[in-house]
Each structure stands twice: as C-alpha cells, then as structure tokens.
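Q: My labmate handed me this sequence with no annotations at all. I'd like to see what the chain might look like in three dimensions before we decide whether it's worth expressing. Could you predict it?
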Amino acid sequence: MATVGDEIQRLKSDSSRPMAGSSLANDPENPAPFEKAPKFTSVHAASEDIFIKLIEPQQYVAIMEAVDDGIPVMQITQMILYNEFQQGAFNPDLMMMLVEPVAYIIIALAERLDLDIVINDEDEDDEEVFGVNFKEDKLKELKGAASTGAVPAGMLSSTMKEQMDILPESLEETSESLLAPPVVEEAPEETETPESLMARR
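A: Here is what I predict for the chain of 201 residues:
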C-alpha cells in the first residue's frame, strides 16, 4: 500500500507535469481548479479549513499513522498543501506561507497522541519545500516543538484547541472510535395487538 512518503516522491518525479506557460494554451472556458480565483486569501482562514479536514476521521487516522510510521512532518505537510492547491484552495504564495502553520498543526495533533515525531530527514540540516529552501531557524523551531510538545502561541486558534480537546488521546483509541462501523440498532419485532387478533374473527 502506498504511503504518504511514496506519494510525495511520486509527485516530485512526475515527468508528466505541465510545462511552464502551458496554461496559456488551455481552454479558458474550462480552467483547472488552480487556474481560478483561489478559495482562500488569508493564512488564518486557510489553516482553519485545513485543520477541519485533518481531523475528519479517515484523514486524521491516516496522517497520525503516517507520523507514527516515521514519515517526516515536512513531507506530510507538502502533500496536504499541494493537494489543496490543486483543488484551487489557494495560490502558490499562500501555499508557501501555510507550510509552517500546517506543520505545527500536525505536530500538535501527533503530540496529543504522544507519538514520536520526525520533522525532516535526520541526515539533512535544511529542507527544500516546493523547490524553495526552508529557513534553518524555522526548522529548528519545529524540531524544538516536536521534542517538547510546546507549539508557539498563535499557531493554533482557540477553535482548534477546543476541537482538539475532544479528540481521542491515543492512536489505538483513535482508530477504534473513529473508524469503527456505526452501530445499527435492530428494530423491535412487531407483535400483534388485541385489535388485530379480533379483526381476524
């Protein structure tokens, strides 16, 4: 089964990506989602939307299991943001601005489950994000948050914190409670009433 890391590598090595300027030859009547006006233009609104999507049961379990499997947070972050960009959620500039907030959201969710968190390839002192070198000091701050569980103030809104408080506190509990099939109560068997018995006579 393909992992989040496999998907990131596939995207990086995809030689079928459009060439620069190819969008100018596309049908203007049927633009791709990322060629339209973006859905979000602010970091706050976009990060709130991403957070809501990340705590949806299947998405939440998949991402937390990826973290638990040792897949770096920076790879997961890039996959999430690239997917949202392709869906027309934001433009490339805002996508870059969202790297740090989304990484901290993943760290906060994983820390709640007491998972071992890997930020990036341990053999690398820096990180390339969407072809741009991520600042070394920012990377150190992310690693510090991962090791201490202390996410900088302002990275999580009060709404996010409230919703996090009701999430399960272990990966096992998360998988069992969020992915368990719904319990369907059987309807009680119909019993004949005195009126129906009398009607037969």
